[in-house]
Write a structure and sequence with these properties.
2 copies of one chain form a homodimer. Chain A is α+β, with helices and mostly antiparallel strands and about 240 residues long. The first copy, chain A, folds into 2 domains: about 1-95, Pseudouridine synthase I, catalytic domain, N-terminal subdomain (Alpha-Beta Plaits, 2-Layer Sandwich), CATH 3.30.70.580; about 105-240, Alpha-Beta Plaits. In chain A, about 20% of the residues lie in helices and about 30% in strands. The first copy, chain A, contains 5 helices and 10 strands, in the order βαββαβββαβββααβ. The first copy, chain A, has helices at about 25-40, 70-80, 135-140, 190-205, 210-220; strands spanning about 1-10, 45, 55-65, 85-95, 105-115, 125, 145-150, 165-175, 175-185, 235-240. In chain A, strands 1, 2, 3, 4, 5, 6, 7, 8, 9 and 10 form a 10-stranded mixed beta sheet that branches. In chain A, strand 2 and strand 3 form a beta hairpin. The interface between A and B is medium-sized, with 12 and 12 residues. Chains A, B: GO terms for molecular function: RNA binding; tRNA pseudouridine(38-40) synthase activity. Chains A, B: InterPro entries: PsdUridine_synth_cat_dom_sf, PsdUridine_synth_TruA, PsdUridine_synth_TruA_a/b_dom, PsdUridine_synth_TruA_C, TruA/RsuA/RluB/E/F_N. Chains A, B: This is tRNA pseudouridine synthase A. Chains A, B: One of its GO terms (biological process) is tRNA pseudouridine synthesis. Chains A, B: It is an enzyme of class 5 (isomerase).
Chain lengths: ~240, ~240
């Protein structure tokens, strides 16, 4: 039986979603919980990595198991064995050819910036103490929308297609908080954090608002802004043709 | 010179405010930062303990130092050396007879309950999955107000005065969140958590709403509710005659 698992996690204490040599990944913790339930070695396949310190509301994975539990019992059993910073939202039986990574059609990421330091949210939003010109950031944001080669907004991408389509990009301001969201058919390594870092540098006046177009055209990473910190980043959801 | 320090901290990663043999206290971390600034061994005296996992918006301490810095420079220097989960709000010079514990006149504690589990706030609010009758809790809450012997709502209190006056007690509901606050001339060990635990047991129908009066009169801890968990508790402020 193949199962699709939707899981949320607080990435603060993990070295990213995937297994790491140098630290614990969320994936490994879920596999350990599955082993405790099924007594079978079970590999999970995620829709993609998230970096160290990055969070998820709805990461999607699949796994195969000969154990046949009711969907709600999978969820209950997993949440019993998982630590409190990883919570399974749902487990559903899917066809054997479902693939969490290859069949992902759309993903949404959100990035939360605050201009007021909050001790209790220090791992869950990125504090920026510079004044930001939000109007300029909004204008530049629109240049990301569409099908582009995002090579200049990524890092460590070798021999992989770098053309992605961003369907939607929004920036909302709520008091001291700024939330920037992207819906795309896929994202490259460090892509959201590079885009957000560039927008921050535009907002504080370090980069011109035309830099987005320039980096997309030149594919020159060195022209873009700094990679934004991981703590503000959330994988919101992954969508499939279903 | 004597200084008064107001500090906020996220207690999640500490074994309480005071130095502990078995784990790191917030106090010790502040003393280490003071040593890094002044190169003097400096003891701080807090307004009182907070338990392991309990937070503070405005804990107050005093310390003596031969080092004479501007008030704003103390704050900046301390925040440079302190970890991100402890933030100094202010440092002010006070008279030599100011005492953070003996001269405290009023303290406010708040306790945050949620009825919707939030992964990202698991260390900062207490999740209750039982339905709660908030009206009953509000009624019982009023019985705490006034001057009473709170021995029955404390633990490990030996040879200390147990009569305290609660000036104000409030319960506010906001969606899934319930915030219970107490302003008093002082609190005994585990007092707020015992009072809140009793209110929770009243809200879920395990205890009668008259139990508050009964415990205050009988001083019988065994009749009260369970001690509520630490993660929802915040020391809001400490006031002095100034």
């Amino acid at each position: 039986m193949r199962y699709k698992l939707i899981v949320s996690y607080d990435g603060s204490n993990y070295h990213g979603f995937q297994k790491q040599n140098n630290g614990l990944g969320v994936e490994e913790v879920i596999e350990t919980a599955l082993f405790q339930i099924t007594k079978e070695e079970t590999n999970i396949v995620g829709s993609g990595r998230t970096d160290r310190g990055v969070h998820a509301y709805g990461q999607v994975c699949h796994f195969d198991s000969s154990v046949n539990l009711q969907e709600s019992n999978w969820t209950k059993a997993l949440n019993t064995f998982l630590p409190s910073d990883i919570r399974v939202i749902s487990v559903t039986e899917v066809s054997d050819d479902f693939h969490a990574r290859f069949h992902a059609k759309k993903k949404k990421y959100s990035y939360v910036i605050t201009r007021k330091y909050d001790l209790f949210k220090r791992n869950h939003q990125t504090y920026i103490h510079y004044p930001l010109d939000v109007r300029l950031m909004k204008e530049a944001l629109m240049d990301f929308v569409g099908k582009h080669d995002f090579y200049g907004f990524s890092t460590y991408v070798i021999n992989k297609p770098t053309i992605k389509e961003i369907f939607e990009a929004t920036l909302t301001e709520d008091g001291d908080k700024i939330v920037i969201s992207f819906v795309a058919d896929g994202f490259l390594k460090y892509m959201v954090r590079s885009m957000v870092g560039t927008l921050i540098d535009i907002g504080r006046g370090k980069l011109s608002k035309d830099i987005v177009k320039e980096v997309l055209e030149s594919k020159d990473r060195s022209k873009a802004g700094k990679t934004a910190k991981p703590e503000g980043l959330y994988l919101e959801y992954v969508l499939y043709d279903e």
